[in-house]
């Protein structure tokens, strides 16, 4: 996976590549998909959600430029896989999931993977969730029609946020950087994520 899906597609951050190699992805997919755990594709995990494509997880981590001493917010815990990877390259990860059943499953998977520097909370990730802010970095694994103000406000000075932005069908991965009161947004690659539901993004079934 690391050589064929990541290095060949331009991922160069060695810390991210090492994290992707170390995290046992099969722990974060349903048993029926264990044989496909390392496929270059998103896979269903129930409740209408997916575990993201490995390349997208690696790209988002790389764009955040983590050095190991950061506190990171992971929005859309899902299976917990991205939180496990982020925990390898950051000091502390707070992961927020709106579906309690997925949050519980992710906690079990993180424990099985030996991740001790990440917690999972249940809440509305589009608003940034309760406590713990400001964050040095925020990774959002669901698409929003706009960059949610609630997440931008939770960025520490110099912080970076990656989030898919667009419609439910067509999106691009946005990199948001905060320097003082200035916010810079840069679009990167085209992508396709499940919608981010909540007060700061797509409302309910809209």
**CATH class assignment:** Alpha Beta
Secondary-structure element string: HHEEHEHEHEEHEEE
CATH architecture: 3-Layer(aba) Sandwich
Instruction: State the secondary-structure class.
Output: alpha/beta
Give average pLDDT, whole number: 95
User: What gross morphology would you assign?
Assistant: globular
User: CATH homologous superfamily, by name?
Assistant: Vaccinia Virus protein VP39
Radius of gyration: 15 Å
Largest sheet: 7 strands, mixed
Strand order of the largest sheet: 5-4-3-6-7-8-9
SS strand fraction: 25-35%
CATH fold description: Rossmann fold
What is the number of domains? 1
- Cα end-to-end separation: 36 Å
Fraction of helical residues: 10-25%
What's the β-strand tally?
9
Uncertain runs are none
Total number of helices = 6
Detailed description of the structure:
The protein is α/β, with parallel strands linked by helices. It has a single domain, classed as Rossmann fold (3-Layer(aba) Sandwich), CATH 3.40.50.150. It is built from six helices and nine strands, in the order H-H-E-E-H-E-H-E-H-E-E-H-E-E-E. The strands form two sheets. It has a seven-stranded mixed sheet, with helices on one face. Helix 4 (81-89) links the parallel strand 3 (71-75) and strand 4 (92-97). Helix 2 packs across helix 4. It starts with a helix and ends in a 15-residue tail after the last strand. The mean pLDDT is 95.
Write the layout of secondary structure elements.
Blueprint: H1 2-6, H2 14-22, E1 43-46, E2 49-51, H3 54-64, E3 71-75, H4 81-89, E4 92-97, H5 100-112, E5 118-122, E6 135-140, H6 149-152, E7 155-166, E8 171-179, E9 182-191
Parallel strand pairs: 3-4, 3-6, 4-5, 6-7
Antiparallel strand pairs: 1-2, 7-8, 8-9
Helix pairs in contact: 2-4
